[in-house]
Every structure is written in C-alpha cells, then in structure tokens.
Design a protein that fits this description.
This protein has about 450 residues and is mainly α. It has a domain of about 190 residues: Orthogonal Bundle (Preprotein translocase SecY subunit), CATH 1.10.3370. The protein contains 18 helices and 4 strands. A two-stranded antiparallel ribbon has the order 1-4. Strand 2 and strand 3 form a beta hairpin. The chain starts with a helix and ends with a helix. The N terminus is likely disordered.
C-alpha cells in the first residue's frame, strides 16, 4: 500500500487550489500589493515639469540611471514617489551582511541570540535603509534643481519635500515587501523588483516588433533572438537548480536496547552561490563614470570623457572589466554568505561527518575546496549570461531592454515563488490526505 506522501506526490494538481483557502488569500494579497506598488510608480513628485524631465532622461538613460529605472519599473523616468524603489534596502542589507562577520557584537547577535538577534539585525538594516535613502533623495533633489526647467519652484522647500516624499516611498515599499513575505506568496522584496522589470516588458516587445515592421531588424534576426532568449532562460534555470551534494553520514548510537541514527544525508552546495548580486554590483560600478559624464553633458574634464569613451557599452575594455568585476564579486560575496568553518562546526556538533574526511578543520578545508571549484563554474556562467546581451547590442545593434541581470532576477524570483506555491499546495493536500486516512481508520 502506498504511503500518504506517495499518494500526495502522485495526485498533486492545481485543482486543489479551489479548496486551499489560505493559499488563495495569499495569492490575492500579493496581487493587490503589487497593484498598489505599480500605482505608486505613476505618481510624480510635486513641483516637477514632466516634459522637461522626459527630455533629460532620454539623454541619460544609457548609464546607471537606466538600470535604476528598469529596477523601479519606470518610476525614475517619471520621477515618481517610488523612484528610489527598494534598492536602498537591498544595498543596506548587503552592507549589513558584509559588516556582521567583522563586528563582534553583530556576529554574536547572528549566531547566539537566535530570533531576538535576527530581529535586531533587521532593525539595523532598516536604519541603514533610511540613511541611504535620505542621502540618495537629497542628491536627486539637488540634481533636479541643477537641471534646467525641471523644477518649477526651486528652493529649500522643494528639496525638503522631495527628500521626505522619496524616503517615505522607500520606507513604504520596505514595509510592503515585508507584508508580502509574511502574508503573501514569495519573497516580497524580490517580487517588487520582479514586478518593476516585468512591467516594462510589453513596451519593450512592441518596440522590437515595430523595428522589425519598419525593416530595421530582419525577420531572421528576430526569430534567432527568440530562440536565443528561450535557450538562455533554459540554461539559467538549469544552472540555478544545479547542486553539488556532499554525502554526510551520522554514526549509530544505542539508547537502551534500541539503535538510533546511522542515517545518510546530503550537504547541498549551489553551483551559483552568490546569486545575482555580482552582476548588479559590477554593472553599477562600471556605469558610474558614464552617468557622471552624461550629467556633465561633455563639459567635464578630458580624462572623464576619455574614460567614458573607452568604457562605452560593447567596447573591448568594457567587456573585460565587466567580466573581471563579476568574477571578483562572485568570490567575494560567496565568502561572505557561506562560511565553511561554521558549516563544519555544525556538522561536528550534530555528529555528522563526510566519509573519508576528518571532522573539524579538515572538513572545513574540503568544503572550501569544493566551493571554490563550484564558484569557478558559477562565475563563468554569470559572465556568459551577462555579456551575451552586451555582445548582441554592440555587434548587431539589437535594442535589448533586458540585460543579463534582468534575466537572472526574473528567472530566480519566478522559480522561488513557484517553489513556495507548490509547497503551500503540497501542505494543503497532505493535510487532506491525513484527514482521509484518519477517517478511514475510524470506520474500520
């Protein structure tokens, strides 16, 4: 007779969604929250001339501003109340992760204080988010006043109101993301970025189709691009799912007259441990000089203009530095988020060991060796995915709205959300089968 788990695995289907009340509530909550977010990306700051802003933005969207506009769902181009988006929170989270291992008090909160320590670290992250958002909002307000004709009534009142509005928008998005995580479906912060990127997809597709209709792009090239996009997404899904599983054994122990333990388990190591963070960091740093030069409208120092020419998208130097930065941040961020010594200590405390490897320091060295080799493959994978759109843009003048970073974010968030959806559906069907099995045993 098949077990309850086997019956559930064979019968799991979307038809169970009709009776999964809690899951449907979470889905509706997530949809409503994302609609609220999209509505906020169309509410402009007070005192802004939208037409003058649009003209300036079209001249500067090739730099880092274009990346921020993409992540914010077009809010930067409209200078909406959500123009800062959720990026200050992500930056603050990364900074806190970097300094936690260095500061003893924060390291203690993370390792020893349990849930209380986690809440305290989250609170520090929120404080850092407010600080970063305030600095960025002040810079945006000053930059808008410096642009000719964008601000209707420049002055201290505009600066203060702009800072309060932009920081308030970021704080609201931070709160909204946390609410989605706790009451909705998926990771709220990631879903907000996902929604911002996907929201601009229809206009990008229509623009590409229009170029094909006008003859700027051949039908063969468009068909080849479609196949290439599908192949890239398949490749990303395959690599993001790939793991190296280290066999872990637990020794048998005798309690009274019974033997316990002796089980085998696995320590999963992802092929791409660092995720999409290296691509975001590398592109942001590389596009910073281009953004500064665009704001100076070519009137800056000669060395700035020379650097921006060499670092233009598609240039060989741009490709080399971009790939080098991705590889560097792959190793750097992997070393931050995964500590082989802590993993080896936890295995030792639980009585587990890797066959043929002595517990303790030798286990940590072995895990670090395997992780280093995996990071080599993961960094090459990120370089290929991120440089392929840049090569097509420079070689064939393909108007890509989405770069490698966007594809990675979309695929990862979609997979994580679907995994959580299946988990809730699995749990619901599991409870239903347990109730049926209990009723059947009572009837007998």
């Amino acid at each position: 007779m098949a077990s309850v788990a086997e019956q559930l695995a064979s019968n799991i289907s979307l038809s169970a969604l009709k009776s999964a009340t809690e899951l449907r509530k979470r889905i509706w909550f997530t949809i409503i929250a994302l609609i609220v977010y999209r509505f906020g990306t169309y509410l402009p700051l007070p005192g802004i001339d939208i037409d003058a802003l649009r003209q300036i933005f079209e001249q500067n969207q090739s730099g880092i501003i274009g990346i921020f506009n993409m992540f914010s769902g077009g809010a930067v181009g409209r200078m909406a109340i959500f123009s800062l988006g959720i990026m200050p929170y992500i930056t603050a989270s990364i900074i806190i992760q970097l300094i936690v291992p260095v500061v003893p008090s924060l390291n203690y909160l993370k390792k020893e204080a349990g849930e209380r320590g986690r809440r305290q670290i989250n609170q520090y992250t929120r404080y850092a988010t407010v600080f970063l958002a305030t600095v960025q909002a002040w810079g945006i307000a000053v930059g808008l006043e410096g642009a000719t004709g964008v601000v209707v009534d420049p002055g201290a009142f505009f600066k203060v109101s702009a800072v309060i509005t932009l920081v308030g928008g970021t704080i609201f998005l931070m709160w909204l993301g946390e609410q989605i995580t706790s009451n909705g479906l998926g990771n709220g912060i990631s879903l907000l970025i996902f929604a911002g990127i996907v929201a601009e997809l229809p206009s990008a597709l229509f623009g590409t189709i229009e170029l094909g209709r006008q003859g700027a792009l051949s039908i063969g090239l468009m068909f080849g691009l479609l196949i290439l996009v599908l192949a890239t997404i398949t490749f990303v899904v395959f690599i993001e799912r790939a793991q190296r599983r280290l066999l872990v054994q637990y020794p048998k122990r005798q309690v009274g007259n019974k033997m316990f333990g002796g089980d085998n388990s696995h320590l999963p190591l992802k092929l791409n441990t660092s995720g999409v963070i290296p691509a975001i960091f590398a592109s942001s740093l590389l596009l910073m000089p281009i953004t500064i030069a665009n704001f100076s409208s070519g009137q800056g120092p000669d060395w700035v203009n020379s650097i921006t020419t060499l670092l233009g998208r598609g240039q060989p130097l741009y490709m080399i530095i971009y790939a080098s930065l991705i590889v560097f941040f792959c190793y750097f961020y992997t070393a931050i988020v995964f500590n082989p010594e802590d993993t080896a200590d936890n295995l030792k405390k639980q009585g587990g060991f890797i066959p043929g490897i002595r517990p303790g320091e030798r286990t940590a060295q072995y895990i670090d060796f395997v992780l280093t080799r995996l990071t080599v493959v993961g960094s090459i994978y990120l370089v290929l995915v991120c440089l392929l759109p840049e090569f097509l843009i420079s070689r064939f003048a393909v108007p890509f709205y989405f770069g490698g970073t966007s594809v990675l974010i979309i695929v990862n968030v979609a997979m994580d959300t679907m995994t959580q959806f299946q988990g809730y559906l699995f749990a619901h069907q599991y409870e239903g089968l347990l109730k049926k099995s209990k009723l059947g045993s009572r009837k007998r």
